[in-house]
Amino acid sequence: MDCYNCGATLNRKTRSAEHILPRSIGGKRIAYNLLCKSCNEQFGRTIDNELASRLTRFYTLLNSGEPVLPATNVSGNRKDGKIALHEKFIARVKKNRSFAGSKDYFRAIAKICLNYYLSKGYPKQYCETIKAFIRSGTPDNIFQYYAPESVSIHQLSENEVSHVLHIHGNKQSGLLYAYIELFNMQNLIFIFSMEYDERDIDVTWCRDVITNADLTKDVQLHLTREQLEHPGMSSADMEERLFPRFERLLRIIQGR
Ligand SMILES: [Zn+2]
Q1: What is the DSSP letter of 8?
Q2: Which of 36, 79, 98, 135 would bridge with 3, disulfide CB 3.0–4.6 Å?
């Protein structure tokens, strides 16, 4: 087994406990066969930290406990059941109707998708493009927000807040991609390959962020090559459609 980032052989000394979903947003599941210690630490300091600086607050607010990671620029407390210490950040998102930050944020989300895919033992040869993106942020045409207007991808219960990961691979279409939702409001597609030629994959993992339990989830997502290559609307417009989901999350937090 080798580190998927640097290729170093993983043994008892070099392997690391990589959280498939970052601990900062409630991830508990660990895999030892993904990254070496050095790469794990490097990603932790950079891209994972960037993701935590945006998202940890929601995990903390939902669980009304102490922050799971003492991230330097995140303080997660509630005052009188209201969001108290994240007002600046939340006001900015509301003003811009956008969550998007640096490329590092998206690299960290891509890493979650790749972690999940590789932890399931699926073929590694289709991961070069997404690996390159995780390493360097290019090519950046492999991901897009995904928020179809009238299509329901899965059933979301009334006060559910969850992370959803879905991998779809189809030999006939040649498509291999991941769909991810974080807190049901950062919904993205990451393309792994357009030349997939192995057995079909349709696998979903859903983690309830409030109960910290896995949920059974049926994801209905059948994207065509055309949709992946030509999304039909800009990423900014697509993201705008996610804004009501961000508002939904705030409502749930305030109701707790
Ligand atoms: Zn490594």
Answers
A1: P
A2: 36
Query: Is the pTM above the cut of 0.90?
Result: yes
Which two tokens mark 34?
A: 């993904």
3-state secondary structure 55-94: HHHHHHHHHCCCCCCCCCCCCCCEECCEECCCHHHHHHHH
- Cβ count near 46 (within 10 Å): 12
The three-class DSSP label of residue 180 is strand
- C-alpha 115 to ligand 1 mean position (Å): 13
Asked if 171 contacts 205 with a C-beta cutoff of 8 angstroms, the reply is no
* Residue 197 near residue 123, CB atoms below 8 Å: no
CA of 135 to the centre of ligand 1 (A): 11
CA of 192 to the centre of ligand 1 (A): 20
| Structure tokens given for 251 | 């409502």
Compute, in angstroms, the gap from residue 107 CA to the centroid of ligand 1. Answer: 16
Tokens of 61: 């607010």
Cβ burial of 201 (10 Å; 0-12, 13-18, 19+) is middle
Q: Note whether 64 and 78 are within 8 A (CB).
A: yes
User: Dmax of the chain from CA atoms?
Assistant: 55
Residue 177: which of 188, 186, 190, 195 has the closest Cα? 190
- Phi first, then psi, for residue 227 (nearest 5°) are -65, -35
Among 206, 40, 244, which residue's Cα sits nearest to residue 252?
Answer: 244
Distance CA 21, CA 33 (A): 15
**pLDDT tens by residue, 8-65:** 999 999 999 999 999 999 999 999 999 999 999 999 999 999 999 999 989 988 886 5
For the purposes of burial, counting CB atoms within 10 Å of the CB of 14, is it exposed (0-12), middle (13-18) or buried (19 or more)? middle
